[in-house]
Amino acid sequence: MEFLLIAALIAITVAMVNRSQNKGQTQLQAHQNRHLEDYRAEASRWVERLGGQVFNIDGIDDASKQAMADASERYTSAVAELERAQTPVQAQLAKDTALEGLYYVRAAREAMGMDPGPELPATPGQSRAGRVTEDRTVEVDGRTMSAATGPSDQTPHYYPGGVVAGRPVPAGWYSEPWWASALASGMWMMSSMMMFNMMFAGMAGVGYSGEDFASGVGEGGADMGELGGDMGGDAGGDDGGFFDGGLFGGDGGDVGGDAGGDGGGFFDGGMFGGGDGGGGFFGGGGDGGGFFDGGLFDF
């Protein structure tokens, strides 16, 4: 009789373990799918907004034409990134690309004397990169390079500010896209630090040196921490997991996330008691007693 009771108890335990694991996995997957769809919907909103501008605005001079060409390129990239997005991080990248494209649209509108439109959210690394706050012209490797606060025939190339190949590029208008080769290849030329020092040293809107530029100060990687924290903090199901509010108890957060359920678990308000579940097999919790404590066997 005792052997049969133990065998039955083991069978019940295994069944509860499997059920708890399957339920937790299903809830986690469902939550992740909802989370991804939220990020995709947000990215889609910005991509569509960019597309509306790209298809309806034509530049009238070199600066506005170049800015709209860059906006169009960002739109194409954002659409492709959104179609491939299988995680919230990938959907966020599509949103950031679309926002960058909208900054180019604002620049084009500004160059044409139009209302630039509403302010946009900052893109990753943008605030750290700084911005051009005064017009400058320098000689670098035998060529003349200029940076300016606004568009002109001498400075028709705009950059909204951000990180390119691990280094910050201040927002502003330039005589040439000196970041373009690094954007395409992922590598900077040896002379880039010297150019940066000559162009931006002492500029109020750029609070770092060429040496800092070369070491990646202003790099926008930390901006993704907010995304990661949000995704990690919210993930999970409502009834806890194997040890936390599932099989072994606890208050059952959203599988490592926000709120807590009262379902109890295997050891905590579930099989072995505790928590809010009203006791378990081996007691210790709630009003109902346990299997061995106030239940089948009352010690």
Structure description:
- The chain has 299 residues and is of the alpha+beta class.
- The protein has eight helices and six strands.
- A four-stranded antiparallel sheet has the order 1-2-6-3, sandwiched between helices.
The H/E string reads HHHHEEEEEEHHHH
How many β-strand runs?
Answer: 6
Q: Which outline best applies?
A: elongated
- Biggest sheet, strands in spatial order? 1-2-6-3
* Sheet of most strands: 4 strands, antiparallel
Q: What is the overall pLDDT average?
A: 77
Q: Give the radius of gyration.
A: 29 Å
Counting H and I runs of at least 4 residues, what is the number of helices? 8
Q: Which residues form runs of ≥5 with pLDDT under 50? A: 219-299
User: What is the straight-line distance between the termini?
Assistant: 20 Å
What proportion strand? 5-15%
Range of helix content: 40-55%
Helix- and strand-based class?
A: alpha+beta
